[in-house]
């Protein structure tokens, strides 16, 4: 089978909600990484086959096919197309899969996969808020088929984060310790300049502004996000944030044609779903299934990036898979670095690639929980 290669991977710094990037139009965020990616590599701008972006809540400034809008906002050739993927939090990881699959099929040679999200501009679930006057209070209201199958069970991420904590015996204090370490790892990575190669500064803003100094004492004072979920506070949850990220995916023919040097090979791609009521547990069976398909074990994996949607998600995965926390999210996760929904998958892969290069690791695995109880898994081999 033909191979797909990662030639480059870049991201903007991550801005806090209402922070440094809040006033930046999503198309301009996307344009910033696209322009940098094109300028850094030897592929003529007119010879890109497609631009595939992840974006969630594609309304308002996110509408109008944001990948295409971003490409044009970057001043790049008008004939290059773009499309948008929404697999909830895994949107840009799925964009990477589709880009790699296009290359591996032989139908395209040079594809950009990435994602963008300005959550200051379009808050999470904004589209559902806009639909409330029509009588829809959540994505499932009004569906007779859904109610017949799942009844009135709650379908929300906070409920799922709480029942995961309960099932795996994760106390609030344990999750706060995990969260504090996420911030400490991210702050150390910033201080040591680990992110400098992957970040494209924008408007004089060159560092992630989401990691912060905290303490267990401060975390203990926070109220739960909802009274019904006593262990789930802002401290143990990912941060809403603003960012964009993009990767250049090419075929072997493109490597030769443009004299490119591959940095990694896409070794495995898969996606699997689990119970939508549990919502956030799919990374566990998805990782097991991916390793089986790839003929690998976690002993073969040097580094893991799993999205810290909530501390309970990553902690349950670590318990079930018995993988070392010391090799997981080594530079912090979404609790410290933010979770800009449609951009997160590409951000995680960008960081994973750079960290494999920094440490000399060979295989990296990325997974993340996604709406509807789904999870993508990607395994890359550093070259």
Automatic annotation (TrEMBL):
Q: Which UniProt keywords apply?
A: Acyltransferase, Transferase
An example Pfam family from this entry, by short name, is Thiolase_C
User: What InterPro entries has UniProt attached to this entry?
Assistant: Thiolase, Thiolase-like, Thiolase_C, Thiolase_CS, Thiolase_N
Show the CDD domains listed in the entry: thiolase
Q: Where is the Thiolase C-terminal domain?
A: 261-382
Where would I find the Thiolase N-terminal domain in this sequence? 5-252
Q: Which domain of life is it from?
A: Bacteria
The record's GO molecular-function terms, alphabetically, read: acetyl-CoA C-acyltransferase activity
Note the NCBIfam families from the entry.
Answer: AcCoA-C-Actrans (TIGR01930), PRK07801.1 (NF005865)
Family per UniProt?
A: Belongs to the thiolase-like superfamily. Thiolase family.
Q: What is this protein called?
A: Acetyl-CoA C-acetyltransferase
């Amino acid at each position: 089978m033909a191979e797909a290669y990662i030639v480059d991977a870049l991201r903007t710094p991550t801005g806090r909600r209402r922070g440094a990037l809040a006033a930046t139009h999503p198309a301009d965020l996307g344009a910033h990484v696209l322009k940098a990616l094109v300028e850094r590599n030897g592929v003529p701008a007119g010879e890109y086959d497609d631009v595939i972006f992840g974006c969630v809540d594609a309304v308002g400034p996110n509408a109008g096919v944001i990948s295409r809008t971003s490409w044009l906002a970057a001043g790049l050739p008008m004939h290059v197309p773009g499309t948008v993927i929404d697999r909830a939090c895994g949107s840009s990881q799925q964009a990477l899969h589709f880009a790699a699959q296009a290359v591996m099929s032989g139908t395209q040679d040079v594809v950009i996969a990435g994602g963008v999200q300005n959550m200051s501009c379009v808050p999470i679930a904004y589209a559902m808020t806009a639909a409330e006057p029509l009588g829809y209070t959540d994505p499932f209201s009004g569906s007779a088929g859904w109610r017949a199958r799942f009844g009135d069970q709650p379908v929300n991420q906070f409920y799922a984060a709480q029942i995961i904590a309960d099932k795996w015996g994760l106390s609030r204090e344990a999750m706060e310790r995990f969260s504090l370490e996420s911030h400490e790892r991210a702050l150390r990575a910033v201080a040591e300049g680990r992110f400098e190669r992957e970040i494209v500064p924008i408007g004089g803003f060159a560092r992630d502004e989401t990691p912060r100094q905290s303490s267990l004492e401060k975390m203990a004072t926070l109220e739960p996000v909802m009274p019904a979920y006593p262990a789930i506070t802002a401290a143990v949850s990912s941060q809403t944030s603003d960012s964009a990220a993009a990767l250049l995916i090419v075929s072997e023919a493109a490597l030769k044609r443009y004299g490119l040097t591959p940095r990694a090979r896409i070794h495995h791609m898969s996606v699997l779903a689990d119970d939508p009521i549990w919502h956030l547990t799919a990374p566990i069976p998805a990782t097991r299934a991916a390793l089986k398909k790839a003929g690998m074990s976690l002993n073969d994996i040097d580094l893991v990036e799993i999205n810290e949607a909530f501390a309970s998600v990553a902690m349950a995965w670590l318990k079930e898979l018995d993988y070392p926390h010391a090799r997981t999210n080594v530079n912090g996760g979404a609790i410290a670095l933010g979770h800009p929904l449609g951009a997160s998958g590409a951000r995680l892969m960008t960081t994973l690639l750079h960290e494999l290069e920094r440490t000399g690791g060979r295989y990296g695995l990325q997974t993340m929980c996604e709406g509807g109880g789904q999870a993508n898994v990607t395994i890359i081999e550093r070259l």
